[in-house]
């Protein structure tokens, strides 16, 4: 991962620690990449409460995602990402829940809906009951590079959200 990403993550961990705030993640297409990048930073255990990799619809639903949202909007949608971020925040009582779903330039025979190169990201802020969302097109030819790209977007979003919070 790029060094600048490491510095962004270090700053996130430092600021969330000072603010006594926590995060949890429900990742699908990134397969735990974002959580792993966070845990590479010293003292990340202070702010990271929980991480779930929910590749299948079954386990998204078991983690609290409303099956009707998946049926109506598909598993590859901003609505599902929002539901993932909300439910992981509720499940863990975290200040921020992060939900990531989409496809990294690959068809899904179990869910043949949506574009094969779009990832949906949602960060839920429990204090303000607010969602921050992004839909991004992945452009790289390898899963690893696309995961790194999604991670960078997530870290930039989270950094911008917490930037203005008072320590």
Tell me the layout of helices and strands.
Elements: H1 3-19, E1 23-27, H2 33-39, E2 48-53, H3 57-62, H4 67-73, H5 78-92, E3 96-102, E4 118-125, E5 130-137, H6 143-163
Parallel strand pairs: 1-2, 1-3
Antiparallel strand pairs: 3-4, 4-5
Mean pLDDT: 91
β-sheet strand percentage = 15-25%
Classification by helices and strands: alpha/beta
> What's the count of strands?
5
Distance between the termini: 28 Å
Strand order of the largest sheet: 2-1-3-4-5
The shape is: globular
Share of helix, binned: 40-55%
What is the gyration radius calculated from CA atoms?
15 Å
Low-confidence stretches: none
Number of DSSP helices?
6
Order of helices and strands: HEHEHHHEEEH
User: How can the largest sheet be summarized?
Assistant: 5 strands, mixed
């Amino acid at each position: 991962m790029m060094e600048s990403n490491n510095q962004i993550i270090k700053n996130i961990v430092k600021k969330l620690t000072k603010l006594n705030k926590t995060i949890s993640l429900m990742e699908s297409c990134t397969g735990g990449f974002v959580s792993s990048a966070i845990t590479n930073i010293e003292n990340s255990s202070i702010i990271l409460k929980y991480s779930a990799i929910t590749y299948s619809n079954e386990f998204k639903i078991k983690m609290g995602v409303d099956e009707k949202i998946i049926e109506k909007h598909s598993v590859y949608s901003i609505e599902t990402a929002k539901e993932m971020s909300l439910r992981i925040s509720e499940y863990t009582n975290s200040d921020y829940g992060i939900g990531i779903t989409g496809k990294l330039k690959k068809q899904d025979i179990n869910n043949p809906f949506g574009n094969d190169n779009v990832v949906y990201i949602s960060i839920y802020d429990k204090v303000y009951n607010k969602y921050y969302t992004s839909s991004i097109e992945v452009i790289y030819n390898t899963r690893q590079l696309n995961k790194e790209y999604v991670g960078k977007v997530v870290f930039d979003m989270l950094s911008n959200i917490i930037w203005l919070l008072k320590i």
